[in-house]
Amino acid sequence: MFPSVLEELRAPKPASRVLAGALRSLDQGLGSMEAALIDTVIESLQGCVWGDDGHLSIRQYVRANTDWSDVRISRCVRNARFCIDAPVVLDALRHGDIGIDRVDVLARAWANPRVRADLVDQIDDFLVHARGVSHR
Questions:
Q1: Residue 19 burial by CB count (10 A; 0-12/13-18/19+): exposed, middle or buried?
Q2: Which is nearest to 89 in space by CA: 132, 114, 120, 115?
Q3: What angle do CA 82, 55, 33 make, to 5 degrees?
Q4: Burial of 110 (0-12, 13-18, 19+ CB in 10 A)
Q5: Which DSSP state fits 86?
Q6: Distances (CA, A) of 2 to 9, 10, 12, 44, 134
Q7: How far is the C-alpha of 57 from the C-alpha of 74, rounded, in Å?
Q8: At what angle do helices 58-65 and 70-85 cross, to 10 degrees?
Q9: H-run or E-run covering 114
Q10: Which of 22, 34, 112, 113 is nearest to 75 (CA)?
Q11: Does pTM top 0.85 for this prediction?
Q12: Each residue's pLDDT tens digit, 90-101
């Protein structure tokens, strides 16, 4: 009797499955949205549109057009610059293969000029690991 009660308590409830599915779906949607934001910043960088209305940098342009903190702006601009060098990472984010946290980690590593070229050369290997390794 006792083991069956424990099994019943441990069994996922229907609401739990629905909520878990909703979390996964929202997470993938968030990745798609982040990819679209990065795409937009890339277009702004490559087209130098940030200077058209008098902004002196891409950071000022993003700050003027969003309600983001300086930390969020720096992260997005760094991710965009990284994805220019490694577009496969942006595709992986867009398709839900990796999350924005993984892109952030790779972009921070890429920002170090001593490892930049090596990281881009090995990006496919890093993506394999990023897909399979937990944050825990």
A1: exposed
A2: 120
A3: 45
A4: buried
A5: -
A6: 11, 12, 18, 63, 34
A7: 12
A8: 130
A9: none
A10: 34
A11: no
A12: 999 999 889 899
Q: Which amino acid is at 35?
A: A
Q: Compute the distance between CA of residue 29 and CA of residue 95 in angstroms, rounded to an integer.
A: 9
Instruction: Report the largest interatomic distance among the alpha carbons of the chain, rounded to a whole angstrom.
Output: 74
Q: Which of 41, 55, 44 is nearest to 107 (CA)?
A: 41
pLDDT tens-digit profile of 19-70? 888 888 888 889 999 999 999 999 999 988 878 888 899 999 999 999 999 9
Provide the token pair at 60: 């000022």
Give the residue ranges of DSSP H helices in the chain.
2-10, 14-47, 58-65, 70-85, 87-94, 100-110, 116-121, 123-132
Look at the block and give the residue holding tokens 């309600």: 67
Give the CA dihedral 88, 89, 91, 93, nearest 10 degrees. 170
One-letter identity of residue 1? M
